[in-house]
Design goal:
GO terms for molecular function: ADP binding. It comes from Panicum miliaceum. With about 240 residues, the chain is an alpha/beta fold. It folds into two domains: about 1-55; about 65-225, Rossmann fold (3-Layer(aba) Sandwich), CATH 3.40.50. The chain is built from nine helices and six strands; from the N terminus they run αααβααβααβαβαββ. The two termini are about 20 Å apart.
């Protein structure tokens, strides 16, 4: 936790120095720097609370339980690790993604590596390809579809099935602002897992009033951010 608090201080000092270089007082750039510092601090303080809950009260969450929560609303789970390396998040997410119970409850499944810069057509193409993979290799050869065609196929699939989508290596909240517009809350219990190296991105993707919990992992400290729920998800 000392490293996390040090990061808050580093970001705060960096933004303070940046604001001193901004000539126009109250400019948008200075406001953005201030907001960035606040978001990082809020997310890390949430992690700090989760760390204390895990250490002193043995409260940790299981990613499979979070995914299988019976809430019908579309839910986003942000996953972040203290190593700051997004690849270190993959084993625990992959294990939950391949869990037999999860597979049976989510007939629509896709694992997407977010491209930088974000490409809407490439994003939809990858989703549609994975959703329809069971139909055979022909779907991978459909290169001439327009963005509108892909979006229609995607929306139809999301409306008809409960889906689990993993977004790997989401790096900025601006990317999430683009991506989240693609998903409607169809009230069918779909889930999105966002894997990121940025703690503030994991927190913001989960939405306002999200909470953090340490996940079960033997190799490193991993945290999930998710909307607060009434029933207990602790183990």
């Amino acid at each position: 936790m000392k490293k996390l608090r040090a990061r808050v201080e580093t970001v705060s000092q960096r933004n303070k120095r940046y604001r001193l270089t901004v000539k126009e007082s109250g400019s948008k750039a200075a406001a953005a720097a201030e907001q960035s510092s606040s978001l990082v601090a809020a997310a890390i303080f949430g992690v700090d609370d989760a760390w204390h809950a895990a250490k002193h009260e043995n409260q940790r969450a299981d990613l499979v339980d979070l995914i299988n929560n019976e809430d019908e609303d579309l839910k986003v789970i942000g996953v972040w690790g203290t190593s700051g390396v997004v690849g270190h998040n993959t084993p625990i997410i992959r294990a939950a993604y391949e869990n037999p119970d999860v597979r049976s409850k989510f007939p629509g499944r896709a694992w997407i590596r977010v491209m930088h810069p974000f490409s809407p057509k490439g994003f939809f193409q990858s989703l549609v390809n994975q959703f329809h993979a069971a139909q055979g290799v022909e779907v991978f050869l459909e290169k001439d579809k327009t963005e509108q065609d892909l979006a229609q196929q995607f929306n139809r699939y999301m409306n008809e099935r409960r889906c689990l989508i993993v977004l790997n290596d989401l790096s900025t909240i601006e990317e999430w602002d683009h991506i989240k517009q693609c998903f409607r809350n169809n009230k069918n219990g779909s889930r999105i897992i966002v894997s990121t190296a940025q703690v503030e991105v994991a927190s913001l993707c989960a939405g306002q009033e999200s909470q953090a919990s340490e996940l079960y992992d033997v190799d490193q400290k991993l945290y999930a951010f998710f909307k607060k729920v009434i029933f207990s998800i602790w183990r």
